[in-house]
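Propose amino acids for all 122 sites.
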């Protein structure tokens, strides 16, 4: 990967942007051709695999519209070259769970692949 990613800085900004429910800020770090998978996407957009930035925007916007309160708290970050994992506690509408988001960056420094995993309620 030619672009250097500071995993901790990326994760801190990502957490902050989600806590502000700023979907456009989060999306600014994703490539136009991103492929994102999440078990929660199927209930929102009909498929757990979301392809392309515009489809990801649709998914996240619809998901945020269904949420009353959201608070992410960073636990730790795993970095390995062009890949990071963001481990965090998600508190959404009174439910608390540990989650992880895996992201792979392209040569342009933007996320090209992402996967969300949600743990059991804490």
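Proposal:
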């Amino acid at each position: 990967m030619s672009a250097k990613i500071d995993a901790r800085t990326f994760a801190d900004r990502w957490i902050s942007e989600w806590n502000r429910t700023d979907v456009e800020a989060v999306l600014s770090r994703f490539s136009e051709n991103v492929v994102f998978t999440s078990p929660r996407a199927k209930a929102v957009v009909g498929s757990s695999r979301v392809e392309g930035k515009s489809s990801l925007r649709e998914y996240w916007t619809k998901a945020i519209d269904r949420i009353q309160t959201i608070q992410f708290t960073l636990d730790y970050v795993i970095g390995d070259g062009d890949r990071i994992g963001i481990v965090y506690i998600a508190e959404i509408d009174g439910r608390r769970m540990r989650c992880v988001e895996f992201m792979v960056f392209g040569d342009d420094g933007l996320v090209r692949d992402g996967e969300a995993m949600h743990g059991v309620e804490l």
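The radius of gyration is 14 Å. Helices lie at 7-19, 23-27, 41-45, 53-65.
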